[in-house]
Amino acid sequence: MMVRTGKQYKEGIDQLDTAVWIEGDKVKGRISEHPAFQGVVQSQAELYDLQHIEKLKEVMTYTPQKNKERMGVSYLIPASKADLERRRKMVQVWARHSAGLMGRSPDYMNTVLAAFASSVHLLKNKPNCFPEHLEQFYEYARSHDLSFTHTFVNPQNNRSQLSLLEEDQTNARVIKRIDEGLVVRGAKLLATQGGITDEIIVFSAPGVQDKSHAFAFSIPSDTAGLKFACRPSFVKDASRFNAPLSSRFEEMDTVVIFDDVIVPWERVFFYDDVKVANDFYIKGNFVPFTLHQIVSRQVIKMEFILGLAQMIVDTINISEYQHVQSKVAEIVKGLESSKALLIASEINASLNAERVMIPDKTPLYVAVNQFQETYPRFTEIIQLLGASGMVTLMDEAQFQSNIGRELDHYLQGFEVKGRDRVEIFTLAFDLCMSSFGSRQSLYEKFFFGDPIRLSQIIYQSYPKDSYTAFVKEMLEKGKS
C-alpha cells in the first residue's frame, strides 16, 4: 500500500469489527458514517489525501534507501537537521488543514512509533524484550501507512504510591503468559481517536513499579476482548455554519477496556521488565520526537488563533483601541516565542550514538509548558474581543427564515453583512465556548503532562551552574 489515500483509510477502519461503545450502544455498521465519527473520519481521510497532491509530494513523502516506494515523512527517523526541518514542514501541512485542532492526527502516533523504532537499542540483550518485533512492526506500519491511537495512562481511581498493594486493581496489566502471548486485563485511558484507527499502541507510563504493568505492544483495534468506551460526543450539529470546528475535528476520547485480551508474541515489544519500561521512556527518543511534533502543530494553532482575533477586530472595527492592540500583541508574542523555540530545538539538535538526529529537548519543553499557560489566555482574549457578540449568535436556519433579511441587516459588522459576521463569531464560539472548545482548552493544558510537573522537569534538567558562576564572578570583581 505504501502511502494510503483517504478512501483506503476509510475502507480500512470500516472493515474492522471494532467494539466501540457510545451512548449505551455498540456502534453497528460503518463507523465512518456514524454521526459522532463521520466528521473527524472525513477530516482524517483528507489528511491522507494530502500525501497524494503533486506539489506536496516532497514535503509529505520520502523514499527510504532500502525501498523504491514512497512512504510518509511522518514515519521518517531523522538522521540530519534537514530531516528535522522536513518533519516540521510535514507536520505543519497536516496541522494547517485542521487549524492545529487535531492533536491526534496520524503524524503524532507515527512519530511515536518512529521514536520507539529509533530507541530499539535499549531493548537489545535484555530479558523479556523483543527488539526484532519492534523493528519488524515499524517496517510493516510504515509500508502500510497504518493509523494508530495509543494509551498509557491509568484510570484515576487511586494514584497514591501504595495503590499497587490493592487487590482490586483496575489498571490494565498482564495476568497470564501463555503459548499464544500475553493476556491483558483491566483498563487504560485516554485513547483519543479510539475506534477509528487500524491499531492501538499500548505501553507503560513512566514510573511503573509492578512488572505486570511494564509492557509495550501494538494490536489491531478489533482484537477480541478489546473495547473502546466513548464519552458523549461533542458533535451537536453537523452544520458547518453552526458548528464549523466541532463538526469536523471532534476526535473523541475513549476508555480502553482489556477483557482478557490476548496479545500475540510477535506483537510484544517487551514485558515484565520495570527497568526497561522506565528506561524506554526516559532514555529513548519518545520525549524529543513527540515534543517536536507537538510544538510544530501548536505553532499552526496559534497562527489560526491570531488570524481569528484579527478578523474579530476588523469585523467590528476596534483596532484603534490600545487595550485591543495589547491583547492581540499577547498572541503575537506567544506565537513568535514558540516559533523561535522550535527552530532553536532544530539548530541545537545533535546526533546520538545510534546516528539519530535528536532535537534539543529544553526549548521544546519550554514551548509546550508555555503553551499550557498561554492557551487559556488566548481563548479568553477571543472572548473579550467578541464580548456580547459571542452570545447573540443566530444559527443558519434563522438566516434562511422570513426574518433572515432583517438579521442580515441588524447584525452587520464593519463592511460585513450580518450573516458573515455571525459566521466568524460562531467560529470563535466553537473554538472557545462550546463543549468542543472547552475540551480543546483542557487538552492543551495537560497535553504532555501536568504543567507543574513539566516546570519541575525544566528546572531540574536546565544547566544552571554556568549562570551562578557568572554571578559569583561579578561578585568577586566587585571586591577588587
Characterization of this structure:
With 480 residues, the protein is an alpha+beta fold. Helix 1 packs across helix 2, helix 9 runs antiparallel to helix 10 and helix 9 runs parallel beside helix 11. Strand 1 (19-22) and strand 2 (25-26) form a beta hairpin. The chain has 17 helices and 14 strands. 44% of the residues are buried. A 6-stranded mixed beta sheet has the order 2-1-10-11-7-6, with no helix packed on it. A 4-stranded mixed beta sheet has the order 5-8-9-12.
Helix and strand arrangement:
Elements lengths: L5 H10 L3 E4 L2 E2 L11 H13 L6 H4 E2 L8 E2 L8 H17 L8 H12 L13 H14 L3 E4 L21 E5 L3 E12 L6 E5 L11 E6 L5 E5 L15 H4 L3 E12 L3 E4 L2 H9 L3 H30 L6 H26 L2 E2 L5 E2 L2 H26 L9 H4 L4 H7 L7 H15 L2 H11 L5 H11 L3 H15 L1
Parallel strand pairs: 1-10, 5-8
Antiparallel strand pairs: 1-2, 3-4, 6-7, 7-11, 8-9, 9-12, 10-11, 13-14
Question: Count the helices. How many?
Answer: 17
Number of strand elements = 14
Spans of at least 5 consecutive residues with low confidence? none
* Assembly state: single chain
What is the global morphology?
globular
Assign a percent range to the helix content: 40-55%
**Proportion of strand residues:** 5-15%
Largest sheet: 6 strands, mixed
Judged by helices, strands and strand pairing, the structural class is: alpha+beta
Head-to-tail CA distance between termini: 73 Å
